[in-house]
Structure formats: structure tokens, C-alpha cells
Please model this.
Amino acid sequence: MSKASSLIGVAALCAAVLLPAAQAEAPANSKDVIEYRQRIMKSMNAQAAIMGQIVSYAIPNDNLPAHLDTMALLAATALKSYEPKVQGGGSKPEVWSSWPDFSARMRDFAANTAKAAELSKTDPEAALANMLDVLDCKSCHDTYRTEK
Model:
């Protein structure tokens, strides 16, 4: 291996290790935090709409596992997006004043969608039958989201 290749490899390794650490320490802009959170929630809403089409048999259920995997990942990411505890957007202050309840609901939602995703890979009809219980977004929104 040439010296130049070695230096490029070392530089890439340093960037891979140091850049995420530097980004993690950077203070977050409140506007950016809220926008990020809203984009995640909009993505979850889009996945829920697709699953609604699947449940109503408007479209085939062939991609149900992929959509449920996506929803589970988004749900896990959504909880992390609230951890900077930046108030605003469509979130009520109760998100942070009732953090143990809110975070438990979000963890349960992520776990339930992950279980449904696994079930959908072997028994899509069983996963579909339980979809309204899995996608219980309204109960959290009623408590923690301002009305549009």
C-alpha cells in the first residue's frame, strides 16, 4: 500500500471517529430541532396513511413489512428527537413536564410497531388485524399535541 493511500485511510478513520463526536457536542438550534422533529412525525404520518390503504385493501399488502419496519425506526427516532427538550412546534409543554409518560408511550409505540413488523413477515393478515391497536397515534396526540 502506498504512503498516500495510508494517509487517506488514516484521515478517513479520524473523520469517521471525530466528526460524529463533534456534531454530538454542537449546540442545537431550536428551530432546527423542531423542524427535525416535525419531519420525523410527518414521515410517520405518511407511513400510517400507507398502512391505512393496506388495511382497507386499497393497495396490496406486499410491502407491509417494509412500511412497518420504517414506522418502527421512525418511532424510535422520534423519541430521540424530543430529548433536546426544545418546546414548540405542535408539541404541548406537557411532553416535557410529563416526560416519563410521554417517553414510555413512545417506547411502547416503537416496540409495538417493531413486533408488528416481525409478525407481518410471517403472517401479514394477523399483523393487519392488529393494526388499529398498533397505530394508536391519537391517544398520544390528544394528550401531547396542539390541535391544528
Notes: Confidence is low (pLDDT under 50) at residues 4-27. The chain is about 75% helix and 0% strand. The radius of gyration is 20 Å. Residues 30-55 form the longest helix (26 residues).
